[in-house]
Amino acid sequence: MNYELRESVDPTMWSAPEIAPSVLSADFGYLMDDIKAIEGDCTFLHLDVMDGHYVPNMSIGLPVIKSIRKHTDMIFDTHLMIDNPDEYIAAFADAGSDYITFHVECSKDPLRTIELIKAQGKKAGMSIHPDTPIETVVPYLKELDLFLVMSVRPGFGGQKFMPEALERLKFIRTQLDSINSKALLSVDGGVINGNASDIYNAGATLFVTGSTVFCAPDKSKAVKDLKACALS
Ligand code: DX5
Ligand code: ZN
Q1: Other C-beta atoms lying within 10 Å of the C-beta of residue 225
Q2: Which residues have C-beta under 5 Å from ligand 2, the single-atom ion?
Q3: What's the CA gap between 183 and 142, in Å, rounded?
């Protein structure tokens, strides 16, 4: 898929559930090898950006996204776990992100942040920390192309899925349907074969998963298995 096509994608063209592997669990010494292993099975690649302030960890940033952009046409689903997202949106757009997701807790004016993302010609996503009341985001849903429910505390891969995320997904699914929104409903953290069906039934359409895919010996098979489990 070339850049122009990525720009004009219609989210309804994908058949849910889509899997967005998170490179956080990839082997950064062999990053493109790991990405190539799942490229044929997935449309989205999830890129976790951490600043050591909003979350107690640091990860990848602009140079890595820019570099891998040259080697794959996957849709880049950039997840900003950073304070002051407004200051960095243009840079993450330029680096090659297609979707840019910020945390509602990090923005002083979420509508303005959404506008900044759209002004760059990118799809706007919002995420929410598990401790933040889910109702907080309702006023913004109609403006969004993606909503990401965190099912772990943001900052680290390999954590256990928080079951209360299911109710939060159902709440957002109901809200999106009630306004006829075609936004992707994404879930991030602790997604494994054993909970995929519950997550799918709760209304998620885009499954972010790091360790389930990138820590598996056969990464392509791990994607296929996870999709099958979601639909089972
Ligand atoms: C956590 C990140 C996730 C993480 C998920 O803050 O946002 O994307 O990579 O990793 P797993 O699937 O291992 O829980
Ligand atoms: Zn993430």
Answers
A1: 16
A2: 48, 79, 188
A3: 9
